[in-house]
Amino acid sequence: MLIIDAHSHFLPDTVIDHIRKHKDRFRSAIVVKDGREFVWDYAGALYPLYREYYDAGAKIADLDKMGIDMAGLPLVPNAYYYWIEPEAALEIHRMSNDWVSDFCAARPGRFRGMISVPMQDPGLALQELRRGHEALGMNALAIAPMINETHLDAEAFYPIYEYCADHGVLLHLHPCFPRCKEELTSYYNINLVGNVYQTSLGLNHLIFGGIFEKYPGLQVFASHGGGYFPYQMGRLRHGYSVREEPHAHISKSPEQYAGHLYFDTITHWTAALQFLTDQFGSDHVMIGTDYPFDMGDYQPVEHVEALRLTAQERKNIFGENAAKLFRI
Questions:
Q1: C-beta separation of 325 from 219 below 8 A
Q2: Phi/psi of residue 255, nearest 5 degrees
Q3: Among 18, 23, 108, 230, which is disulfide-ready with 226 (CB 3.0 to 4.6 Å)?
């Protein structure tokens, strides 16, 4: 049985060098703080440059340490570059997709790549999605739960969803803030609160926006245990039963669309992970680490072992669900 981490990040060293050389084009710069390098973008976000983003030896050593056989690799979300000119962002995405395709092809037993695209221009995004899937052979697409200030139920994104649904491309939602919103500036709340809030909002718009009714083949994988979303399903269901607004685009109560959703194990709380598994099923939960970030979970196998599960339910979460979705 393969144990698969469905949520582990990459950022190519070639992309880092490209940003370093063309900082104005990408509205970013490499800066040094306390002896470490960071990417600082002109919108104000700052994130560290870890060797583990691109170093195969480091990645494999850490997988072995965690008892994980294989990892799915979405691009570091700060490198989505939704907030710059689309053509410049496409450069980053093309370089990243080429790099991760080659990286995984050289290590087929250890890694599977995810496509990234410039979602601020849905036409260019669809073009790069097709290339990533048809030419590079990847079958998962990583995007943010909100594209700048545009929600995921926007009609402009319909061709992306149609392509994913028709071709079995898994849609992975990972939060991304180009800048820290004022209300999230304290206590690292941009991550502690903002990330899980944004994922919840993205799932809400996919369901209430009728996306799963339009594209019944679409499958969505939500980061960080699905944010707040799974734990407030009762509130969404109640809202649907007493308010008119949630009926605008859907014909069924929101819980009826849960079969389209998958979640990783990154909850940092056994009780929450047990609830997630009990309510949505072991066939809709996959191991995730968020490697190599400090908010990651680096004991995911132990955390799944701590749950009340049958042997088959454990196998589902450890790797069988991911193997099916990533076509391993």
A1: yes
A2: -65, -15
A3: 230
